[in-house]
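Late entry, written up from scratch paper. The run itself happened at the end of the previous shift, but nothing got recorded in the book at the time, so transcribing now.
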Amino acid sequence: MDAVAGRIVVLAGGLSHERDVSLRSGRRVAEALRDAGAEVDERDVDATLLPSLREDPPACVVPLLHGETGEDGALREVLELLGVPYVGAGPAASRAAFDKPVAKAVVARAGLNTPRSVALPHETFRELGAAAVMDAIIASLGLPLIVKPAKSGSALGCTVVRAPGDLPGAMVGAFAYGETTLVEQLVEGEEVAVPVVDTGDGPRALPVVSIRPDGGVYDYTARYTAGSTEFEVPAKLSDELAAECARVAVTAHEALGLRDLSRSDLMIDRDGTVWFLEVNVAPGLTETSTVPLSVQAAGLDLGELMDTLVRQAVVRSSGT
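Output as recorded:
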């Protein structure tokens, strides 16, 4: 199949805390698309971007901005204003998926398991007293907990809390990345990632990736330092459990109204129950990311897959 006609713009970088990861994802995808025969420009997000898109409209944009700048729907809203085709979820779905408490509520209504949690803004702790609020959290949710920013990615600001005295520092760490913090019951077991792709025949799950970080916690360092995490794909799961992980990921993708590509992060507890943790509308595509591993395990080529998603976005934008 010939590559899509016209220039593809890969957007990477931005000003979020995940800028470096985004740049790495952008380079990887741009190279893969070029290998598939596409004409590709790599662009950062700055004041020159919109004039450039207006004056020389590309065939399609591939947004690979991680964090709030790229995943909260705002950039996609602007691309729609310009009438520029782009790969990935629309603005409303991106907003819902990026807001972890909202995403958890949506998938829970769809019948998926997600850990009990509470999402509280910084003002609540300031107005009601941090000590009293934290006592109430522990009394209700128990221990261990995981504390994370409500709107962030790459495990930035995430801390596991096993003792009451660890909670204040974890809250401070999460608030450094956003005004609202999600405190969630920690599900212990096997962490897995499940990409979902839709190339025109409906969403389907790619092979499950098992994640075993050296330090026991899949944090930023474990995610993006080569050799810090052992990945196994396809994960060594029973057929029934692998099918359940796939079902959960596809259900989350559909319930949130996502399209083209997403990645769900799940936990399998010791009883074999699959828990939804979060979903990503612009998943990392670096050399240490799980999606490319799963794409390869499925017998697919990353460049050809992205080219197919670009073609799909162009057709979608044209209304044909």
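The longest strand covers residues 189-197.
(Scratch paper discarded after transcription.)
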